[in-house]
Design brief:
- With 472 residues, this protein is α/β, with parallel strands linked by helices.
- It folds into 2 domains: 56-189, Rossmann fold; 192-470, L-fucose Isomerase, Chain A, domain 3 (Alpha-Beta Barrel), CATH 3.20.14.
- The chain has helices spanning 2-5, 19-24, 28-38, 79-93, 108-117, 173-190, 205-211, 221-230, 233-246, 255-275, 284-289, 298-306, 317-330, 433-439, 454-464; strands spanning 17-18, 56-63, 97-103, 123-128, 146-150, 165-168, 193-197, 215-219, 249-250, 279-282, 310-312, 335-342, 347-352, 369-374, 379-385, 392-399, 404-415, 424-429, 446-450, 467-470.
- Strands 12-13-18-17-16-19 form a 6-stranded antiparallel beta barrel.
- A hairpin with a 4-residue loop joins strand 14 and strand 15 (379-385).
């Protein structure tokens, strides 16, 4: 690494070393190594464990009249053939879900027997196939997670209400399959572990375990420091070299500082692997300012998030579990930020010193980035990610203690280059910034994911029993 990093020279606030200058000096073998390291996750040491629980178990329930009864869709409709078709398509589209033997309740007692026998299922997929419907109101009213699907012209979906009910009424079968997959995402959340490195009582840990089922393990700062000390030096240098080669520009941080970040990344990665965890949140500002952490975790978080795990700033467990939930639901990383609203431009600017560069997932294309120091104190190393523009993004945060999720969408328009505040500043266009400004609630942080995922958020929220607040 030293031969490459030596080209950075002294920190230059206004300029830096471009990726072109770095790569022009690489030998062909070094460039091949760079391409291998930067094309995807760094995989040469233990990785965060995948939350691969057993399949979610979902009872498939159909509601329709007896054969020969006049009604919707029509008398003589082939309900049996339609049920077989739907069951086969669901099984193919949702390989991580075990659909239990379908039930067709005819009476309220039938529904009661289904509920009594299914204490261990993860939820129900209730298909409304025809009218007059079966007396099934007790199922959505039970308080168990239920996805209710209106097979178009098959039922009155407006009557299907309950505390944990998600509704689907669409001619696109993929909308049904996507809603059903939420049962798998929730099962994975219940099988996941988040590490929280703090020297204080962790906020939201109990509420997260009660609502998502995700376990929160508190890690003392001393344990992270010990992991840092025993982190493999060669692995640390390899990570740092890969980041430098991939960066379009290295501005302030020295070789030594980037090496510290590489060591912190290896330490975090090892802790995740040792504890079987899928994400880590660190009270980074407090611990670094207090001399209890030897390096900022920003570059390590950037790598973890690129690789499909979760690295969350400031011990923000709300954002951490939001990132984890959205990674399971979309396959894409979340980006924690402190949004700044600019009413003059109808924009919201998502600002932070950590951001992924593989916003479309671990195997998606990587956008350019700069390695900078941390903005507030001009120390350490962090990331300025130049994220793609022209895309719809969904920004949200689950607040477990309030059983609420706040959410908005916007369209990315620019990467702001301003020395004030955090290094990454992604600007996005919004319709009514004043409304967003006046209605902002439940903390500053939001988690931004590339894509319009409002329906997936609504489905997860409904099955969790969360209220959805759309802002802006």
């Amino acid at each position: 690494m030293s031969a490459l990093v030596s080209r950075i020279g002294p920190p230059q606030p206004a300029a830096g070393t471009t990726r072109r200058r770095f790569l022009s000096t690489c030998s062909s073998s070094a460039c091949a190594l760079c391409a291998g390291l930067c094309a995807g996750p760094l995989r040469s040491a233990p990785q965060p464990a995948a939350a691969r629980a057993e399949k979610a178990r979902v009872r498939l329930v159909f509601s329709h009249p007896a054969p020969g009864v006049q009604g919707w869709p029509n008398v003589g409709y082939d309900f049996e053939g339609r049920k077989q078709e739907l069951a086969a398509r669901l099984g193919s589209a949702c390989p991580n879900i075990e659909f239990l033997v379908p039930s067709v309740p005819r009476t309220a007692d039938d529904v009661a027997r289904i509920l009594a026998a299914d204490s261990e299922v993860d939820g129900y997929l209730l298909y409304l196939l025809g009218l007059p419907a079966s007396p099934i109101g007790a199922l959505p009213a039970s308080g168990r997670p239920v996805v209710v699907v209106n097979d178009l012209y098959g039922g009155g979906i407006g009557t299907m209400r309950g505390p944990r009910v998600a509704l689907v009424s669409s001619s696109d079968f993929d909308d049904v399959a996507q809603a059903a997959r939420a049962f798998d995402h929730l099962r994975r959340l219940r099988s996941s572990i988040l590490l929280d490195v703090v020297e204080r009582a962790p906020a939201e840990a109990k509420a997260i375990e009660e609502t998502f089922g995700t376990k929160v393990q508190v890690v003392p700062a001393a344990e992270l420091s010990a992991a840092y000390e025993r982190a493999d030096g060669a692995e640390s240098r390899k990570s740092a070299a890969a980041w430098i080669r991939a960066a379009d520009r290295v501005v302030e941080p020295s070789e030594e500082e980037i090496g510290k970040s590489g060591r912190m990344y290896v330490a975090m990665r090892n802790l995740l692997a040792e504890r079987g965890a899928q994400g880590i949140a660190i009270d980074c500002l407090t611990l670094f300012y207090g001399g209890k952490m030897p390096a900022y975790p920003c570059l390590g978080f950037f790598q973890l998030n690129n690789d499909g795990a979760v690295g969350a700033c400031e011990a923000d467990l709300q954002s951490a579990v939001t990132m984890l939930a959205m990674t399971y639901a979309t396959g894409r990383p979340g980006y924690i930020s402190d949004p700044v609203i600019d009413t003059a431009k109808n924009q919201v600017v998502y600002a932070h010193c950590v951001a992924p560069t593989r916003v479309f997932g671990p195997r998606g294309p990587a956008n350019p980035f700069h390695i900078r120091d941390h903005s507030e104190d001009r120390k350490g190393a962090s990331i300025r990610s130049l994220m793609p523009v022209g895309h719809v993004v969904t920004s949200l945060k689950f607040v477990p203690s309030q059983k609420t999720v706040v959410m908005h969408t916007a369209k990315t328009v620019a990467n702001i280059d301003d020395d004030k505040a955090c290094r990454t500043k992604l600007a996005a266009q919004i319709a009514d910034p004043q409304k967003m400004l006046e209605g902002w609630s439940l903390g500053w942080h939001r988690v931004t994911v590339y894509g319009d995922y409002r329906n997936r958020v609504r489905t997860l929220s409904a099955l969790l029993g969360f209220k959805v607040v759309e802002e802006g």
